[in-house]
Amino acid sequence: MPASDKALVFDIKRFAVHDGDGIRTTVFFKGCPLHCIWCQNPEGIRADRQVMYLKTRCIHCKTCENKAFGHQLTWVRDDPELNHKYYGTFDNLVKACPSGAIQYDSTAMTMEEILERIRDDKVFYRDNGGVTFSGGEPLQQGEFLIELLKRCKEEGIHTAIETSLCAPTELVMEAAPYLDQIFADMKFYNPQDHQKYTGADNRIIRYNIKMLLESEAKNRVTIRTPLIPTITALETNIRAIASYISSINPDVTYELLNYNDLAGAKYPMVGMTFGMPDNTRRFKAHEMKKYYKAAMDGGVRNLITETQVKGGK
Ligand code: SF4
Predict the structure, then answer these.
(1) Does the CB atom of residue 71 touch ligand 1 within 6 A?
(2) Is there an atom of ligand 1 within 6 Å of 54 CB?
(3) What gap in Å lies between CA 130 and CA 121, rounded to an integer?
(4) Tell me, what's the pLDDT at 268?
(5) Which CATH number fits domain 6-46+107-308: 3.20.20.70, 3.40.50.150, 3.20.20.80, 3.90.190.20?
(6) Which of 20, 45, 156, 224 has the most beta carbons within 10 angstroms of its beta carbon?
C-alpha cells in the first residue's frame, strides 16, 4: 500500500537536546493508540486536527464571538470557550482571530515539506545529531514514516524514534533498519495495569520489545519507563520490567524517566482534563535511588540514571 501523501504533524522542535544523541530536530506526529492519563502531549493523542485556545495570546477583542457559527463557542467571563464537540471546521475563527489565540494544533505536511525543515537544521547536527520522530505515536502514520526514514538515510541524516511500540510488529521491524536510535516505552509489566491506565493492554508491546531485542537492531534500542508516582513508579513494576527485558537481552539499555510535573498545563488548551492530581511532583534525586536499585535487582546492567539522561519524551 502506498504511503499517504501527507502526515499530520503537531510540532517540530528545533535544537532539541533531550530526544537522542547530539542536537536534534524533533518531529511530532499526531495520533496515538494509547491514552495514558499522564500524557505530556495531549494534543498528540487524537489522530484528527483539533482547534486550540491559547489564553495567553488572547487580547479579548471578541472578534471570535461575532464571527462564530452556531455552537462553535460560548463566551465565559473574559474568554471564549471553544466547543470541542462541534462537528465542523473552525477555519472561520482561526482566520478571524487577530492574535493567533485560536489556532489548529497541527498541520498536514508532505514528505518534502518535512524534509525541508530537517535539512534546514542539518548544519547543527555535526557528528551525532539528527532527527527524532515522536508524537503521539509516530508509527500510527507508519507507512509515511518508513518512507521518510528511508529518505533521511539516503541523505545521511541520523534518525531516532520515541515510540510506545503499540503498533503492528511488521511496521516496527520494517522501520528498525532505518533507525539509529530506538527509544521504546515499557510502562507496565502487568497487562491489566497497562489497560487501566493507558486504555490498551500491553501484549503487542511486550512482543514488539522481544522482537526488537532479539533483532540486529538490539544494540540501538533503549527501553524506557516513565516514573509516574503511585502508578508506574512501584518497585515491583520496575523490577518486573527489568527482569523481562534483561532476560531477552542481558545487555539491554534501560532508562527511568522522572515525572514531568508541567504536563498538565497543556490540557485546557485542547479541552481535555489532565488525569493526574495537581500536586503530583517529580522525584528528588534520593527518591530515584530505590527505582534504580529495583532495575538492577531485576537484572539490568546498563541503566541510564538521571544524571546521564539524554532523552525524555
Ligand atoms: S478573536 Fe482571538 S484575540 Fe479576540 S477574543 Fe477571540 S480568541 Fe481572543
Answers:
(1) no
(2) no
(3) 8
(4) 86
(5) 3.20.20.70
(6) 20
